[in-house]
Every structure is written in C-alpha cells, then in structure tokens.
Amino acid sequence: MSIWQDLPKHFLALAPMEGVTDVVFRQVVAKAGKPDLFFTEFTNVSSFASEKGRDNALERLDTVESDHPIIAQIWGKNPEHFAYLAQHLEELNFQGLDINMGCPDKHVIKAGGGSAMIENPDLAIKCIKEAKTNTTLPVSVKTRLGYSKIDEYKTWLPLLLEQDLANLTVHLRTRKEMSKVSAHFELIPEIIKLRNGIAPHTKLTINGDIADKAHAKKIWQQYPEVDGIMIGRGVFANPYCFTSHTPTKEDLLELFNYHLDLFQARQEELAARGSHYPFAPIKHFIKIYINGSENSKIFRSELMNCKDIEEIKLLIERGAQAAAVRPLGRVSEAKH
User: Fold this and answer.
1) Which of 21, 27, 150, 310 has CA 20 to 30 A from 62's CA?
2) Which residues have a catalytic role annotated?
3) What pLDDT does residue 327 have?
C-alpha cells in the first residue's frame, strides 16, 4: 500500500527546505515531535546521474530510522535523469518521491527546475511520466499557484492533477510573490474543487504561512477536504510545532545541545567517507533556540561568532543560565 494511503485522514508534514531539512535537522524535529511525514532537502537528478555529483547527491539522500516515513524531494529538468534517480530511490529506503516544481530560488530557476517548470508544462509532464514509469514508489509534486500571476493555478494545477499523482502539495503563492505576501488561503475552496473534479484520489496538501499544529487544526475545521498540512518556516519559530507542547527555556537548550551532538557526529561520519560537513550552516539554526530579549540577543551574537561546535558548546555551558531565552510563541497566522 502507498505511504499516502497509510497516513492519517489529516496529516502533518515537514516541508522540504534547502540547506535545512537534512538528515541532522530531521532527527532534531523528530525528537521535538515528529510530523506524520518527512521530506528530504532537494536532490538534483542530474547530479545523481553524473559520476562527479553522485556522492553529494547520495549524502543528501541519507536517512535514519527516526525520520521515516520519508519522501525524497527531487528536482531538475532532464526527463532521463528523473527516470534514472527514480529507479534507485526504493533501494535507498524511501517511501515515495516528490518532484519540486515550486522552488523560487533564482539559481534553481536558471537551471530550469523548480518554479521554472510552471512555464514549461510540456517538459514538466515528461519529467513526471519518466519518474512514474521507472519506479513502483508513489510520485507526488510540490508546486506554487503560478509563476507570475495567481490565476495561472486555473490551468497549471489541473494539468498536474491529470497526471495521476499520489499527492499534490500547493504552496499558496506564486513564484513572483516569493514569501513577500500572505498565502492565498482564500483559494483553498477553488483548489479543492479542482482536485475533486479531476483527481479525487489524489491527496491535497496545503503549504504556506502555517504556524503549527493548532493552526493546522483551524484550517481543517474550515476546509476538512484538505488532506495534509505542510509546515516550513514555522519550525524556525517553534521546533515543537508538530505538537501541542509549549517549550521551556530548558527544553530549547536541551534540544540545541542534541542538535550540536548530531551535527558533530555528522561531521565525523562524512569525514570518514572522505567528504565534508561545513560548520557555517549550523549558525542558521541558532535563532531557533536563542532569541527574544536583549540578553539573548547578546548571547546569540556571541554564538554566531563561534568557530566550531566545541566553542558553541562551551559558550552555552558558561552563559546559558544567565541568558534570557524567550518561551516560544506562535508565528503570526495569515488571514484566511
């Protein structure tokens, strides 16, 4: 049975985020409170298909027991490379593959992937078909309403729904809008209507401006035909967003230390494989654990100046008790 059929009637998923949702951070989220479904960060199909890029692609596809069930998020523009990667994902212990047709990053767009697919629908369909033909895993797509105009969803989403997808995730903004405007929750009824009319068997997941589990429940109360809610940036405001738990300062510092231990272990693991896990990205996560008052701003600044994990751990040990770390609240909910 497809993993999509095994999920609860209403399920929560952690959004795939480049440079964020790797195997380390997924373990952190699992410890704080697991969603029903994980996605990897983005893997370029052409990197996997090349001898030079395959090792890096495989690192991106590393998983552990705690981050299952998990879907591989893949992107690119070469249908043959989609077919090649699709053939290997089941043996890598994934429960499905998801094609990214929504990433707004300019480098991804320039390479012809992500949101660029919205403007190249014939190629998008070829990539979906090649993936589906070459795997027994369920194939899904994550996309946006359109590239430049909101109304593009009226032709773009039906085209995707006609491809017999296991799930369609819709980020409720266009590529042009990025995250500069509120998500268009008002379009959910129209999107539900399209799904029900074209592919009622396809799961529908909504993404964009969703803060946490409580917020998701409100959406389901209003739109019960939405199957899944995907949370992305909300996890930076509250890593416990998939639970009803309000974390204390102690919870956050314990989770931070757990993250640092995992990060250090990953560095050692990749070094043994002749690869490298860079230190700098850990700084993107500091704000998750340390933020709020003037004292915590100073503490955060000191942490940002650290040069390695041991230095961060030492600073936490010396100064965490004196630092004021805010209890996490909710990010602002978009009106819908």
Assistant:
1) 310
2) 103
3) 43
